[in-house]
């Protein structure tokens, strides 16, 4: 099992709910955005989401590209407010 720690920030969006009873795994809901911390060849990735950290199956998520992140910012009214404040 080879672990690759990531030098760049990779964000993924959950395509399905994932609930685990194992405390080392990360439970999340569909559409949650997860920061990937490490990847195993087995398909399990380590991530951080909503203040929690743990392992999750990579086939439950989709890697977000720049276009996905831009549209997410447009949908987030809190982010829009921050942009307006920054222009003052």
Automatic annotation (TrEMBL):
Residues 66-88 are annotated as: Disordered. The keyword Chloroplast does not apply. It is found in: Membrane. PROSITE patterns: SH3. Transmembrane segments: none annotated. Its main location: membrane. Residues 7-66 form the SH3 domain. Keywords: Coiled coil, Membrane, SH3 domain. This is SH3 domain-containing protein. It comes from Linnemannia schmuckeri. The lineage of its organism: Eukaryota, Fungi, Fungi incertae sedis, Mucoromycota, Mortierellomycotina.
């Amino acid at each position: 099992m080879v672990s690759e720690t990531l030098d760049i920030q990779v964000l993924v969006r959950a395509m399905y709910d994932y609930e685990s009873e194992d405390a080392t795994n990360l439970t999340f809901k569909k559409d949650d955005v997860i920061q990937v911390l490490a990847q195993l060849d087995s398909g399990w990735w380590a991530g951080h989401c909503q203040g929690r950290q743990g392992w999750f199956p990579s086939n439950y998520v989709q890697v977000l590209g720049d276009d996905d992140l831009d549209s997410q910012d447009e949908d987030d009214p809190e982010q829009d407010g921050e942009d307006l404040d920054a222009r003052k």
